[in-house]
Amino acid sequence: MRLAKRRTPQTKRGLLPEAKHLVLPAGIVASGFPRVEAICKSILIEFDPWQRDLNRCILAKGSDGQYAADIVALSIGRQVGKTWDVGAVCFAECIAVPETTVVWTAHRFKVARESFDEHRGMAQSPKLAAHIDIDEITTGAGNECIPFRNGSRIVYAARERGSIRGFRKVRILVLDEAQILTEAALSDLAPTQNQATNPLLILMGTPPKPTDPGDVFTRIRAEALSGETDATLYVEIGAQKGCDPDDRNAWREANPSYPKRTPARAIQRLRRLLSLEDFLREALGIWDSSSTGVLDIDKWRRELADPAQQFEGTPPLGLDMTPDRAWCSIGAGAIDGKRRLVELVEHRRGSSWVVDWFTDPGKPHRRGYRVAIMPGSPAGSLIEPLRAAGVAVFEVSSQEYAHGCGAWFDAFEAGTLRHRPHPDLDAAVEGARVTKREAWTWDRRSPNAVISPLVAVTLAAQCAAQPREAFFAAAWR
What is the CA radius of gyration of the chain? Predict the structure, then answer.
């Protein structure tokens, strides 16, 4: 059984090699960066090579001249220079396009004020006098604004104060501290761009703590890395997980501005001030397991099935569909005593292909397929079409599913579960969370990942645990 893969995130070899992850939006034909760079040179702003690459990606455009990315998400640590870089891009765009409104937000007023102070220093350059009257810059708390002579402006505000709701036609919206951006705040802010021409939305932050309301940032990261979206630019710069936090090579991986612009002393200061966990997140840009899920992804990746270990005949299958009905997954499972073997065998967009997949005459043993489905799940709508096509369907109750999730987790913790490697299943395991509202089960609405591959292999293992006689009695009732 071969997997029909979802969209592979587009990357460009040699572009931004400093990034651990670079996911480009689809359809890029040009970039607005040459214009921005020319303006910045005229006002004596120069970019480092990694910033030039980053800005080329941020300002990438499609064939219609619009920005290719609906969302730009930057996971970059502290003391790297992202505030200065994105600020320079905003300055150039304000100069190039009259009447441009940029809203720069942070969760806390203090952080928004720090960004304003840094940019106000840039604005006081003599080369900007033709574009900015420094006497018109407003500095009152809560009213920070850098106005341009052509009607453009950069406004700074804290999301916690809810002071952005009244804005309209915001062309560039910068959401700093994205690791603590809530869904409620995003729903307030996103409409400010509805009437803007060619708007640009930029989220930037560091990996969230377990206590942070980081669902938005985590969800966007998971969608980008899994290839679920083709309209997001995702850039992650960070050291490798498990590195020595005092290794200067790790500092270089996490901070392309080190040591030229960010001295060792600045990083050492963070090392002294922050806990080890916070230093790994905020200075080295490392996403930790508690930020993304409940399963140890490193343990998961180690416990691969022996290539010689094969399913006998046609294995029991599990079928799941995402809550938005955008993806369907088919998993296979087998149980031998206490040992379990699972595999993700198919994962595709939509659901129209599912019945044909099970009834394809070119597939071996097609008459022997047994598939487990939860009737109350989105995939429940496929039960009758599959049965009409001659497929044996086992309906898994909510209680049986809870037992299956628990048994799957227990086998994983005991080291008796093996799997065949697959990136979509890996992403589901890494991002999985659990819900305990009624029973301990995988949270099907997890913001961290598309978990239907995990649900599918869990159902497959649950199907494998059923006696064949009991299975067919249930299947044909």
Answer: 25
The whole-chain average pLDDT of the chain stands at: 87
Backbone angles phi, psi at 63, to 5 degrees: -65, -20
Which pLDDT score is estimated for 297?
A: 81
Residue 398's φ and ψ, nearest 5 degrees, are: -60, -40
Strands (E), 125-184: 145-147, 153-158, 172-175
Question: Residue 468: what are its φ and ψ, rounded to 5°?
Answer: -60, -40
CA angle 28, 67, 115 (to 5 degrees): 125
Residue in the block written with tokens 């560091």 = 206
pLDDT of residue 101: 96
Residues sharing a CB contact under 8 Å with residue 411, sequence separation 6 or more, in sequence order: 338, 339, 340, 417
Select from 145, 136, 152, 169 the least CA-distant residue to 92.
152
pLDDT tens digits for range 74-102: 999 999 999 999 999 999 999 999 999 99
What is the distance between the alpha carbons of residues 476 and 347, in angstroms, rounded to a whole number? 26
Q: What is the DSSP letter of 128?
A: G
204 contacts 176 by C-beta, under 8 angstroms:
yes
The H-or-E segment that residue 303 falls in is none
Joined together, the tokens standing for residue 427 give 């992403």
CA 459 – CA 342 distance, rounded (Å): 10
pTM over 0.90: no
- CA–CA separation, 207 vs 280, rounded Å? 9
Q: Given a cut of 70, is residue 393 above it in pLDDT?
A: yes
pLDDT of residue 222: 80
Instruction: State CA 37 to chain mean position distance.
Output: 29
CA-to-CA distance for 285 and 77, rounded, in angstroms? 5
One-letter amino acid at 471 equals F
Instruction: Give CA–CA dist 182/193, Å, rounded.
Output: 18
Band (354; pLDDT cuts 50, 70, 90): very high
Q: In this model, does residue 338 exceed pLDDT 50? A: yes
∠ CA 319-320-322, rounded to 5° = 160
pLDDT above 70 coverage of the chain, percent: 88
Residue 437 has pLDDT above 70, yes or no: no
Q: Which of 354-368, 391-405, 418-432 has the lowest mean pLDDT?
A: 354-368
DSSP conformational letter for 290: H
Question: Residue 297: which H helix or E strand, with range?
Answer: helix 297-302
What is the number of H-type helices and E-type strands within the chain? 17, 18
Q: Helix, strand or coil for residue 22?
A: strand
Cα 350 to the chain's mean position, in Å?
A: 21
59, 54, 15, 12: which is closest to 33 by C-alpha?
Answer: 59
